[in-house]
Amino acid sequence: MEKDERDLLDVLKFELNFVEKGGYSPSPREPRKMNFIFEDSPTCMNYDSKDNPGPCGECVLMGLVPPGQRSQTIPCRHIPLDAAGQTLDSLYRQAEPAEIGEIYEKWLRATIAKLSEEREKRAATPAQAPAAPSAPAAAEPLFGKLHPKCANPACTAAFHWLAGGRFYRFVPGELTDSTKANAAEQSGSSVTAKHYWLCETCVQSHTLNYKPDSGVVVERRWPELPVSEPPKQLSAARH
Ligand SMILES: [Zn+2]
Fold first, then answer.
1. 16, 63, 111, 165: which could join 199 in a potential S-S bond, CB 3.0 to 4.6 Å?
2. Residue 149 carries which DSSP code?
3. In whole angstroms, what is the distance from residue 39 CA to residue 33 CA?
4. 179 alpha carbon to ligand 1 midpoint, in Å?
5. Which residues hold their Cβ within 5 A of ligand 1, which is an ion?
């Protein structure tokens, strides 16, 4: 079973659709069999693989389970559904199916509304590169540090292989003729490449350049790109 990479909001919308279509209603063949919320829905990560279930810890729903309940056998029964802290686990012990359905649906709609609202807010305020240096500033090399980070000295984004952004590699021998002499001077006889990384946010407004007098610097792109421009360099960073 692969790690669950579904989007939580999409999963919950799908689940609401399932609920509205009466997905949890008892089947006419087994009118006495109770259907369990999440577990008997296609929303369950293991719906199609009951014989070979993946660990619930990888399910996208786990983000809704309080940390203290995540080691439960069926963690999704422990998602708090109302202000009183009722969960499917507590409701199955004391409430009628109709009441459980009502509480659950109310929670589901409220959670979808909350997640949608958060996303809209995030989309309305695009990420800004933090305090971008207006004049070129010396870029910080990626390696040789305890905590590798974005080359923009004003940015604190920690480096991660899967974080996107863009890699830069500067090899003194590969620099243009006009800069070669200087680069050789600066690096001595070493031709070791230096690696830099601009995070996904910074790479949208900045780039790295080699300057004969100041070395590798962080510069604003020119012409300036709109901040919303998606970084295209991800594929280039993977080889
Ligand atoms: Zn950055």
1. 165
2. B
3. 14
4. 26
5. 150, 152, 155, 157, 199, 202
